[in-house]
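Exercise: predict the fold of this chain.
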Amino acid sequence: MRYSIIGDEETVLGFAIVGVLGKVATNAEEALRAFQDIVADKETSIVIVTERVADMIRPTVDRYVFRESFPLVVEIPDRHGPMPNRPSVKEMVNTAIGLKL
């Protein structure tokens, strides 16, 4: 089982420190190419995408989130924090487990 990340340079670098491979995407074309490359790798079971990058390729990300069972696609805030009107990671965890941490 492998994790991979797609995001801005700083986020990808931060994840690389703990051994998560990733691809930097600064525009929609790079984001789509990176996403397609990562989901084509059958060793990757979890794809982490920053919210800003996911918004660049929203239809593709949503297809995997809502219709595909593999790989799991998880959106996270980047170094700038959550986007407006998006829950924080803590709020998402609280909702998922039904407890306030």
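Check your answer against the key: Residues 28-40 form the longest helix (13 residues).
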